[in-house]
Design brief:
Blueprint lengths: L1 E5 L2 E7 L5 E6 L7 E2 L1 E2 L4 E7 L6 E8 L2 E5 L18 E2 L23 E4 L1 H4 L24 H7 L3 E4 L3 E3 L9 E7 L12 H13 L14 H14 L3 E6 L30 E6 L2 E4 L4 H17 L4 E4 L2 H6 L3 H14 L5 E3 L5 H5 L11 E3 L2 H13 L10 H9 L6 E4 L18 H5 L7 H16 L3 E5 L24 H4 L3 H19 L8 E7 L4 E8 L3 E9 L5 E8 L3 E8 L18 E3 L9 E7 L3 E6 L1
Parallel strand pairs: 10-11, 10-21, 11-14, 14-17, 17-18, 18-19, 19-20, 20-21
Antiparallel strand pairs: 1-2, 2-6, 3-4, 3-7, 5-6, 7-8, 7-9, 12-13, 15-16, 22-23, 23-24, 24-29, 25-28, 26-27, 26-29
Helix pairs in contact: 5-7, 9-10, 12-14
């Protein structure tokens, strides 16, 4: 489908069953029409000589609504123009990009640690190092500025909020309209004064691995710039997740768009061949009962898999697809992608029966590998609200314990404390404060905010599930984020404060070193969990992680009181010396000279406690946690 280069020219293929005639016009024909021939089932086809990479084109259709120019639904790139509807489609040659990631091996499902970011709102600087984030959206190549930060942090996967072309000036990306084309405003033109800096930076990162530099025109469009970012992330050991929105498209539909591409004859409520007349999030729901529409969306994921070397997908609001009759489409989607790339995780955002979306097609399920979960997030955020009541407030740890037990499927649930929806400044539905302000609304940098944020983050990173961090969370960002020009200047990550704030530096070190430990403790990657001690009066919770049939036990004990516990009797999986491998109190004004900890470790006796065969007396820091291994 779409425009595909071949020897001497290109093929053009379009589905437009209601059209009486279809032609393609472009720079290769001086914008004169070249007719397409009608084939079976409403597909049109032409082989056009003289087409080359970079040529621009549009379709000209005559249908029930009369004649008009239309963009190709499968267009891989669009031209940058001041007024969006005036853009043209661009013929690309994806295989011409010089990939270097042939030896990259994505992390196993169970080892994923996800970092979610928004390209347009992450950062942007000019060639003098001046901050320009409030002047324009960030660009794909701006991500290169923070690769060293991400590597140092220790995440192994980046999830980009949707990057498909949207019509508005700024967007979270969930109103995509041209689903095969990366957002043109995230690219930099080759004649832009910033382009040489970006090219030099990309080549400097390639040189680290002994690769030859990109040529001057190697990154001359948005497709190649996005490919280069993915390629360089792969070289640094970081996988990439694309967030695909297949539950609806658009928010507005211009006359050249998919909505008006081809129309049924008058009489239908909607008349669009691709959409129902039902709305969602300002756009329209796809017509999932049509084979051609299902194939269009499956092809969308397949293209990013093949041409962009994407390592995983998150599918937005799968609940909506199900609600509007798309369960069969979801089964087709997962079955097709898994047959082509069984090691590529498919993550669903689904807020109904999450077990159903994970079950196989044979068992009536949708066949996804993972599902986004809010259970642990809800329990830990509710706990922080209780803790804000002070030392005498009633605290209930049972929901936290139940959230961990419900996640015993391990790597099949994506757990988080923050995400793009709940910490967005202009979200009027379910907005919640970022972690520091949620922990202490009166002072987001107080000891209460710091210590409480550490302990709940510690539980996120040691409990079952795939942990997800939202951009800025690792440096203790306390401000909401936004993609909107109304809020943009005051709603960006305060990277500059990292250099001057000890609290931010200490929190970053805390997250970085805990992720480093998580990587070495393989029991934290699996699903086995035993929450063996839950004492709400003492505000203490303890759980065991292990590898089935192997052992490698890990014990995590967390304390939510405002004073340390000394000689606290806790169960252990066996007798002997248990080393203290991590203590969150260490990161209070690093290095904390008054740390409450267990030195080199503790000796566990055969005196069983809390259903465990052994026990030890330990120290648990205030609003903190400790991790033990043999």
């Amino acid at each position: 489908m779409g425009a595909n280069l071949r020897a001497g020219g290109a093929t053009f293929r379009l589905w437009a069953p209601a059209a009486s005639s279809v032609a393609v016009r472009g720079t290769f024909s001086n914008w004169a029409d070249t007719p397409l021939e009608r084939g079976d089932n409403g597909y049109w086809f032409a082989l056009v000589d003289g087409v080359k990479e970079g040529d621009e084109y549009l379709y000209y259709l005559v249908g029930p609504d009369g004649p008009g120019l239309k963009r190709d639904p499968y267009a891989r790139a669009l031209t940058r123009v001041p007024v969006f509807p005036e853009c043209n489609c661009i013929v690309t040659r994806p295989e011409s990009f010089p990939w270097h990631d042939i030896n990259f091996v994505p992390p196993d499902f169970s080892e994923l640690v996800i970092y979610q970011l928004h390209v347009g709102a992450y950062w942007s600087i000019d060639d003098q190092g001046r901050d320009r984030r409030a002047d324009r959206p960030g660009r794909f190549l701006d991500l290169l500025d923070r690769i060293d930060h991400l590597v140092e942090l220790g995440i192994n996967t980046v999830q980009l909020l949707p990057i498909q072309e949207f019509a508005t000036e700024r967007s979270m990306g969930y109103n995509g309209l041209d689903l095969f084309s990366p957002e043109m405003d995230y690219s930099v033109a080759p004649d832009d004064t910033d382009y040489p800096r970006y090219l030099a930076q990309a080549n400097g990162l390639l040189a680290r691995f002994g690769h030859a530099p990109y040529g001057s025109g190697a990154l001359d469009c948005q497709t190649k710039q996005l490919m280069a970012v993915i390629d360089i992330l792969h070289l640094h050991g970081i996988a990439v997740i694309f967030d695909l929105v297949h539950n609806h498209a658009g928010g507005g539909f211009d006359p050249k768009s998919l909505y008006f591409l081809d129309r049924d004859h008058p009489g239908d409520n909607n008349r669009s061949l691709y959409f129902t007349d039902q709305g969602w999030a300002g756009g329209l729901i796809f017509a999932y009962w049509k084979q051609e529409v299902r194939q269009f969306l499956i092809d969308n994921a397949g293209l990013f898999l093949d041409e962009y070397h994407v390592d995983a997908f998150r599918f937005d609001e799968v609940t909506v697809i199900d609600r509007f009759g798309g369960w069969g489409f979801l089964q087709d989607l997962t079955a097709t992608l898994q047959s082509r790339a069984p090691d590529v995780p498919l993550i669903a955002e689904y807020w109904a029966d999450q077990g159903a979306v994970l079950r196989t097609r044979d068992a009536g399920g949708a066949g996804f590998d993972q599902v986004v979960s809010s259970t642990l997030r809800g329990a830990l955020r509710a706990l922080l609200v209780q803790l804000r009541g002070g030392a005498e407030a009633r605290v209930d740890l049972d929901p936290v314990a139940e959230a961990m037990r419900s996640a015993a499927t391990g790597w099949r649930q994506v757990e988080h404390l923050e995400n793009h929806d709940i910490v967005r400044v202009n979200n009027d539905n379910d907005r919640e404060a970022r972690l520091p302000r949620h922990a202490d609304p009166g002072d987001p940098f107080s000891w209460y905010a710091r210590s409480r944020s550490r302990v709940v983050t510690g539980l996120l990173l040691t409990a079952p599930g795939i942990p997800l961090l939202f951009m800025g969370q690792e440096i203790f960002e306390d401000r909401y984020w936004s993609d909107s020009t109304n809020f943009f200047r005051d709603a960006l990550i305060d990277w500059g404060a990292l250099a001057s704030s000890h609290a931010r530096q200490d929190f970053f070190r805390f997250v970085r070193e805990l992720l480093g430990l998580r990587k070495t403790l393989r029991a934290l990657h699996g699903g086995e969990v035993n929450v063996f001690h839950v004492h709400s009066d003492n505000r203490v919770i303890a759980f065991q992680r292990w590898r089935e049939g192997v052992g490698e036990d890990v014990v995590v004990v967390a304390n939510f009181t405002e004073a340390a516990w000394h000689s606290y009797e806790i169960g252990m999986p066996g007798p002997g010396i248990w080393r203290e491998r991590f203590n969150s109190d260490t990161y209070e004004q690093w290095v904390n000279p008054r740390i409450d900890g267990n030195g080199n470790g503790v000796a566990a006796s055969l005196d069983g406690r809390q259903g465990m065969p052994a026990s030890a007396k330990i120290v648990i820091p205030a609003n903190g946690f400790v991790i033990f291994t043999r």
